[in-house]
Amino acid sequence: MNRDPSENISFLMQSKLWIYNYLLNHRRIVFLGLLSVFLLFGFFQIGQTKQREMQKAITQVKLEDLKITVGGSGKSLGTAFFGTLTNETNKSISILTLKIDFLDEDGGVHADLTISRLGDTKYRVVTGGADGNRDWVTLRNYRDDNNLDCEITIRTHDIATLGLWGPKAEDALGNFVDADEISLENFPFVTAKNLTLNLSDGKTIDVWAARISYVGESGWEIYLNNNSDEGLALYDSLLEVGVIPVGIETYANSRRLEKSFRLQGADLETEYNACEAAIQRPLVKEADFHGKAAHLKHREEDPCAILCTMTVDDLNVSGVPRYPVGISPIIDPTSGEVPVDNKGRRSYTTGMSYCPTIKEFVVMGYLPAELAKEGQKLAIEYFNEDGDGVYPITVKIVGKVSLYDPENKKVRS
Fold this sequence. Notes:
The chain is of the alpha+beta class. It is about 25% helix and about 30% strand. Strands 1, 4, 5, 6, 7, 8, 9, 10 and 11 form a nine-stranded antiparallel β-sheet that branches. The protein has a six-stranded antiparallel β-sheet with strand order 13-16-17-12-15-14, covered by helices on one side. It starts with a helix and ends in a 15-residue tail after the last strand.
């Protein structure tokens, strides 16, 4: 049945009137709806802009063969972030990870390593001098127990290492290699590659440099043949361009503690788990690995002890300033006793040193959760005779972060 044209016009007018009344009666809902659409469109445009910026940046660096693994699973052991970077000049760079931790069955921190990828199936494992044999045995036993086809070669006596760090490290190294090759754009933080250095005496040496730092400043670990001629030539050349040599105390204690960097065998032990040491990752991989069950449990519970960074309030408690070293008991001044956590572990200093950059005497140690609070007043006991060896300390950091350059801008620059 055909509708009269006048009826169509009347129907259209009634529809418009109904829509007008609806909008008028529900204007607040309509306004919010329009506002939501506008905000969503705005966020979409911002996201698209950021995506274009990211894509532009990514075109300069290409990730290949990316692999992430934690603990031991299948033919993988440890925690690592592996891959290959290829920039526009087709120079390959190996990705590194500063913290590669092996856990024991109970989730304790068994080893703290640096692993870099040298090829499709070839990796370099770097560990502390005091831990080398233990970590070698761990890798060897894991290989043998799981019947893995893997060759492990100890290079400790073949390779020497020189640490070059500081605000002018890039300028210093740039005296011996093309400055563009070691710029932050072409040689970013936590990467490594081979370099040929043209030293000041005309000698040329090949080195493998890793842009990582354990002292809170940008720079490199430079690996070279353990050859006295090459080592002395590099050392003398660096001296000639103004590099100042410093002892291992700077590397192992003062500058490390300014950054609250953990030391295996001191701050990191199997007696404490990764969550208590505050080195846990944001995510855990799906595949199984050694210590995973314990680690997952630790992530779900509140730690009963936490590694903290503290500073000494007064070094002159005996009339003469003293600078404690080594391991000392931590004291709760309210009780005069050493704090003990719920697992029966007593608090002590895992490391301490005067830190010249921040002009503070820094102490690290595990505290029971109830005392692990910023601003908490405690003390350490060091050669105490009649109260002349009790040094007041204050908790400055609970868990992660550091007193010096807390945003890590310097080490990444």
